[in-house]
Amino acid sequence: MAERVLPYEVNCSILFTELPLLERPAAAKEAGFDAVEFWWPYATAVPSDREVDEFVRAVGDAGVRLAGLNFFAGDMPGGDRGLVSWPARSGEFRDNLEVTVGIGERLGCRAFNALYGNRVEGADPAAQDDLAVENLALAGRAAARIGGTVLVEPVSGADRYPLRTAADAVAVIDRVAGETGVGNLGLLCDLYHLAVNGDDLDQVVATYTDRVAHVQIADAPGRHEPGTGTLDLDRYLDGLAAAGYGGWVGLEYKPSGASADSFGWLPRQRRGRGAEEEGTA
After folding, report:
1. The pLDDT of residue 278 is above 50
2. 9, 37, 225, 252: which is the annotated catalytic residue?
3. Which of 87, 76, 152 lies closest to 114 in space, CA to CA?
């Protein structure tokens, strides 16, 4: 059996930002990719039907698959990092669940990232964590309707965000399963965030691959494309594949130049889903 080759896809909320959002899936396809992912693509939790239809059409017309989609996470450029544990905005998260899962159902997406949310001034952290369990269980039940998985992600660069390591996220996943019986939550293993936060990536791969439901990469420092920093991303990805991970690898990096010019590290024949079939026998 040949070595497993993991398939890559493009996060079109951080790449191709020089283009209007609805033109980015086609740009990813033109660059040789068969799948894309997005952060929540709207400014509100519940966009209009027309806005949803336009997004679905743009992805479908481009001929790419939607491999991942974030639930509404608030004002990301303004510093928000999710509503799951935010008492004052929990209702917005709940209102967003069916919209997000509905988009996933239409586009074949089964991975939904629920950013945990920052600690909020004046709120009891324990109460925020209790709320997160409730909301993640609701998200898990909504995603289960279409065979989907809710992703829990450690994040760097946000001092008030409490999930920083793989162990932090897995503890939340286990608490949700233990207290609610909802078991379709998985670790979003973003190698960049974990490295910046000081996690030992070799140990993460050795310990948590069976909990990983999605992978994202960027090099560190800088969060640019592979080869611009010091992370041995090939080694970690090979380790994940050898340990049984066979899902997508999302390219969630800030290109150091034009997006279309930032893929030189990845031969074109390895960008499409077909690369996976070519690498296995």
Report:
1. no
2. 252
3. 152
